[in-house]
Design goal:
heterodimer; A: 298 residues; mainly beta; Double-stranded beta-helix; seven-stranded antiparallel beta sheet; six-stranded antiparallel beta sheet; 27 strands; 46% strand; disordered N terminus; B: 265 residues; 49% strand
Chain lengths: 298, 265
């Protein structure tokens, strides 16, 4: 006779949280329990999409993910729990859910950076649902007390009240042109969001277009990714730009102009997550200045 | 003889069928309803076929599905001309004058709807990832649909359009100035919609209310009232008015999960 596994016997390979493994999905992040971890030859782990109608538990509340193209996060909030979110991600709410605004600092800077100026909060009891505006996956990132992640702007969907939200300059930029014609480029956006759980376990929900892949980087291990492909990273992962100039037959193709590749270098230790849909980088003129960057000319 | 009731359109189906003959919904999957009471529109399997009148409709593809209709002699469908993906050359076409030309121009809606008559094949699709929602309408039903969401309607449906009442609803409702209204008389009809992302439906009881992002509204029974209600949101010295659509029952409400937020920023 086989014995049931003890509580904490199952560690989710995606969110690294422990549970009894008796449910079909991880109660912390919604990832299926009964699927084999799929790892590409290069080491990327495909984050399995959260199954339709899967439930995630946090504090006294639940979050149910429904739909597959543009999933909806439908939260049943306990009266002691609250969440915050960007107002444009709200899909529907019970009239008795208490909606209000969350004080935000740096309104002017946020406006200049193209970030939502208003962050709203919803206090239970009641149901409230959120969705993004493009096909992709909802990613649940459960956070232990004190644990934080850096999230690229516009990926955030909703977070529980005990997750502290802050944002700081991404410090990934370059300029093209000179003098009055100088153009500033921010491949990651001007700022990056940081979410840190305080006091107890927190839950962060993100939306990523396309499919999602995660991997662990060892200390000093580097990987080049499309800047628009990054979703989140551990704060311990550092990042900087990398420019590559392929060798060409003509000056136009080789001379640091159109044929340049702009990469984001991620350096471990820590976890990183990327999405399969990303904005095509602009083929802009030659780089005149940049944040810390490496260069390779082939 | 046992019959299988479709959980989406309530039609009775012969034993052994795997999808509903009236709306194409899979019959062998359980009803997916969230804890808050929203039912997922059935995800139609690729190449699902179902019947209406003497014609058939086949749904092809899953990301941006195509509705391909094989129209029988005597059957016809009406649609906005830009949703037609292809048709056989011999399919006769005519135009349905919707009336209210200037109003429709102001509302950004097409003046004329196209009608395709059988016999022949014709196919429709919209230009966004999402789902085809099949809504069989029983006799004496009225359904209001967000503008630019309808794909095709069968000849037994009466088409009209209704102005969204209240200036606040027009300016802040996110649904434009008008809604399409589809009414059945004595005959049943079939309405095909395209919902962006995933589509969910909830039936509100008499007086029951739900707040919905205006851009997420897709359709409702005409018995459901819709009003824009303001949520005041303050950030420092700045105050923003955010509007949500308050839907009040009785009746069905359909929403889509991908939408454009008509924002307050």
């Amino acid at each position: 006779m086989s014995m049931p596994p003890a509580a904490g016997a199952y560690t989710c390979p995606y969110c690294r949280m422990a549970s009894d493994g008796q449910e079909a999905t991880c109660p912390h992040c919604g990832a299926p329990v009964d699927v084999r971890v799929r790892v590409s030859d290069s080491g990327w782990v495909q984050q399995p999409p959260i199954r339709d109608m899967a439930r995630i538990r946090f504090s006294h509340s639940t979050c149910q993910i429904s739909g597959t193209y543009v999933p909806v996060a439908d939260m049943g909030l306990h009266d002691a729990d609250w969440v915050y979110f960007s107002h444009h991600s709200l899909l529907h709410a019970d009239p008795n859910v208490n909606l209000g605004n969350l004080p935000m600092k740096g309104g002017w800077k946020r406006m200049r950076a193209g970030l939502p100026l208003i962050m709203m909060r919803a206090q239970g009891p009641g149901h409230i649902a959120f969705s993004a505006d493009q096909p992709g996956e909802t990613i649940a990132v459960p956070l232990r007390p004190g644990q934080g992640v850096d999230v690229v702007e516009h990926r955030f969907l909703v977070a529980t009240g005990n997750v502290n939200y802050d944002w700081h300059p991404a410090n990934v930029w370059f300029t093209t042109g000179k003098g009055d014609d100088t153009e500033w480029h921010y491949p990651l956006g001007q700022t990056i969001d940081r979410f840190v759980a305080t006091g107890s376990n927190g839950l962060l929900l993100l939306h990523a277009p396309g499919n999602t892949f995660v991997r662990d980087l060892a200390p000093s291990q580097r990987i080049l990714v499309q800047p628009g492909g990054l979703i989140w990273k551990d704060p311990s992962v550092s990042m900087f730009l990398h420019f590559e100039y392929p060798r060409g037959a003509y000056w136009f193709s080789s001379a640091r102009y159109q044929a340049k590749s702009t990469w984001l270098t991620l350096e471990g230790p820590g976890r990183v997550a990327v999405q399969s849909v990303f904005e095509r980088p602009e083929m802009v003129g030659s780089v005149t200045r940049s944040s810390g960057a490496t260069t390779h000319q082939w | 003889m046992d019959r299988i009731e479709c959980q989406w359109c309530k039609a009775q189906n012969e034993p052994g069928r795997t999808n509903c003959t009236t709306c194409g919904a899979p019959l062998d999957t359980k009803d997916l309803v969230t804890d808050s009471g929203w039912a997922e529109a059935p995800r139609l399997r690729d190449m699902t076929e179902f019947r209406f009148s003497n014609s058939t409709c086949q749904i092809e593809g899953e990301i941006v599905p195509v509705a391909e209709l094989a129209l029988a002699q005597g059957d016809s469908v009406f649609f906005e001309h830009h949703v037609m993906l292809w048709k056989e050359p011999g399919v006769p076409m005519s135009a349905l004058n919707t009336g209210g030309g200037m109003k429709r121009t102001l509302g950004g809606m097409p003046h004329v709807l196209s009608i395709a008559h059988g016999p022949g094949r014709i196919a429709f699709s919209r230009d966004a990832a999402g789902e085809v929602v099949v809504l069989p309408l029983h006799p004496s039903m009225e359904l209001d649909v967000r503008e630019h969401a309808f794909l095709a309607g069968t000849h037994s449906l009466t088409y009209s359009f209704v102005r969204i009442k209240g200036l606040a609803n027009v300016l802040h409702g996110g649904g434009g100035m008008y809604m399409d209204r589809f009414v059945t008389q004595r005959e049943p009809g079939l309405l095909l919609l395209h919902g962006n992302g995933n589509v969910f439906q909830k039936t509100l009881q008499q007086g029951e209310k739900i707040l919905v992002e205006p851009g997420g509204f897709l359709y409702k029974d005409s018995t459901v009232t819709m009003n824009a209600v303001q949520q005041n949101v303050k950030t420092g010295l700045m105050k923003h008015g955010m509007y949500l659509a308050e839907m009040t029952g009785p009746g069905r409400v359909g929403i889509q999960s991908m939408y454009v937020h008509h924002g307050s920023e």
